[in-house]
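#struct-help
A.M.: can someone run this one for me? Single chain, 442 residues.
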Amino acid sequence: MKTQMILPMIDIEAGFAPSLRLNLRLFDDVLNKSTNPELSDGMKTYYHQRLLDFAEPELLYDRYAASYPIPSGSGKTIEFRYFDPLPKALTPIVEGVVPIGSKLSMHSLTASIQQYGDFVPYTDLVSATLMDPVVERATVELGSQAGRTLDTISREVVCGGTNKMFAPQVVSDVETEVLLRANVNANCLFTPSVIRKAVNILKRNNAKKINALYPCIIHPDTIADMMGNKEWLEAQKYVNPDKIYNGSIGKLYDAGFMESTEAKIIGPEYFFGSAGNGVCRMSLKTALDATGSTSIFTNEAITVAQAAELTAKIAAGTVKMYVGGNEATLVSVTAGDPGTAKFVVTAAVKSVAANAMICGYGAGRDGSAIYCTVFLAMNAYGTTEVSNMGLQHVVKPLGYKDALNLVGSVGWKATKVTERLIEAYMVRVEHTTSMGLVAESN
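D.P.: on it. Structure tokens below:
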């Protein structure tokens, strides 16, 4: 007979779970540990813990979410619940008369969990000595992969919020407001002034801090720029390490900064290839005069294979680009050596100097990558707990369902969903950095 677990009442103000009694029976036939009938219980626990050891440090975007387990009997759905604040009670109580009272206004949002996972096969030749070293090394790599995967799922949800602002363009101490992502350029850097404005938005929305600060997830490129700022340097002199988050790199204006290379970057769309080996920026070979031209020759070569790839994209839908900051729509691409390779666009592009930036659509029109620095408050978003949702280490030793003992595998799987709950409790700042003209999407 399977037992049912009853969660105690938990205060949502703590930022971890809804204040509701939930009847839990988490995947009755799924164990939160290594699944392999041929491993001892001790080895199952050891490998599962190793997986968690390398997965959990990667889960930065989950760290500040309200954690929700899946209610018993709900199948693949989870219901996130949150409440509106009660209005002020400004009417005096009349002696002897019981007031009407107020009702809690609850909102719910249902979502379906998805399953994710991967595995690494190995052969009898690879594991010619002992299986354990192979499993141990694979577990380390798979743990990191699991953490980065589950973190990215939450990151994409958080960074898709509607409450956003753009860093202004600052030239010679003169600020120009930016209202569109395309207009974020190399002068739109993350500064203490931007931090003050973002934090103020959360305060004006009565968003509650987490451990006395608003956590901010920030990319190392952004922090590298900030570290030379006098306001930042002065503030860090008085930071008490015991009063900031574990892993924090500092605090400023009621924000605590957590550094991560997984902080979202939106680079120009790729002309050819993808992350790691793609091309999203090129340069103009032949200057365009006031008459302009629809032929855009490049300083870089375009291979036949690259031309074929981009031609397929054009055939599948509209492909846009920027030429010296001017938006253009691609018609075709011609392979060739530097100076002869070219793009053809629908309308003439005018008055652009030689060597100007040619870049894909989707980021800054000058080719700047867009960095998404997120400020968070309590109960801004919710996610399922990794440990309770069945992050599993799955080992299939050599010979498992294999008569010749030729193949085994090591893997992981987990269930996951993340949802934004209160948009006003998170602010995304879009800006660039001093590395913005070379950074790509991550």
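A.M.: thanks! The first strand starts at residue 5 and ends at 6.
D.P.: also worth noting: The first helix runs from residue 41 to 55.
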